[in-house]
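1st attempt posting a full record on here, be nice pls
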Amino acid sequence: MLRLIPFIALLLVVNAQAFTYKKHSLSALGGMYSFSSPTSSLSGFGALDLSYSYRIKPKWDLQVNFANTLSSSFSTVIWGVDGGANYCFFNCMAKVEDIDSILEIIDYKRSGLKGGFGIGQRTLQLIGSSVAYSGPYLRLEYLYFKSEIFKILGRFQYSMFVSGTKSLDIRTISVGVEYDL
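the predicted structure (as tokens):
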């Protein structure tokens, strides 16, 4: 017990705000989708999202997302790009504290939650024609940490796109992985 006293004293003098964190992350998700417009709807499996995030503050990151959706009959493809920001409600990253270059403390919780918003664009590619849509989206993500840099990710996204007088609502539920660089 006496041997632990210097270590405990060292931990007490560490500044709690002096931690580093990974700034970049990549994620890949796949899942199901549901599209609805005033005249028709389509749902199924085949949503694919690839994302890059850059953390600007411990609670905020900017994200660029490529989304591709393929219908089961391969007759409809919807693809596009999203750009927006995510806010971490709790436990979205691992904190690393370096203590005098001899000790590194890595702290992360098992699960986290973040929400996001932004602007997206989708191109609806049908056989013989295509229509471009754009508009805002809202996103909610659940993170489960497998290690300090590898997470399993669950995402729900709701997008409200318009093209002139046409509207398209897209809902996706996806599961995938995220890797912090």
